């Protein structure tokens, strides 16, 4: 017959794998399929209603903006949205942010009137201006705005002036005596010629000369290797 000590030891050494009536270790009932189905149906229905609401709201907003922009005509060929002139004011789907920024930049640069801001501190514009001036100063040309006058190179003009001399005008007769404090103006030579090329322009000229020398060398090499007919 067990004693009280045996009952106490049996309770202290309880088997952890033993199943209790209240917690057998597994689901004692099946899943509620109807509840899960109702939840999923409600979730998808809510998403569908939300998408329809967003679509209708977007259409209303686009319609209001198109009404505010007005019809697409020659005064409104470019608008804040893409495809205004081609699609008669109909908007396209929203593109990515970098793509929209690039298209907006291209649209701005193609329609913004000149003169535009230089992104190189005017170095290329100055080089182009001096190149055009060099063409006029170093070559013969015709001036259509001066009755078809012919321009000559500046070196030839300096030679002619050195040969013929500058025209001398007769000194006007002094009609009135100079006032007190008046002095005869003296013409001084300028410190510079008033023209200086930029460093960028010098680099461009050097690169152009090197390219011309290379092309001439290539042409000479092809001429030497070409067979004589």
Q: Strand-and-helix sequence, N→C?
A: HHHHEEHH
Structural shape: elongated
Sheet of most strands: 2 strands, antiparallel
Taking the alpha carbons of the first and last residues, their distance comes to 135 Å
Characterise the protein shown here.
The protein is mainly alpha-helical and about 230 residues long. It has a domain at about 125-165. The protein has helices spanning about 5-10, 35-70, 95-110, 125-140, 155-165, 200-225, and strands at about 140-145, 150. It has a two-stranded antiparallel ribbon with strand order 1-2.
Keywords:
single chain; 229 residues; mainly alpha; two-stranded antiparallel sheet; 6 helices
Brief digest:
By secondary structure, the protein is mainly alpha-helical.
Draw up the topology in text:
Elements: H1 4-12, H2 33-69, H3 97-111, H4 123-138, E1 141-143, E2 149-151, H5 154-164, H6 199-225
Antiparallel strand pairs: 1-2
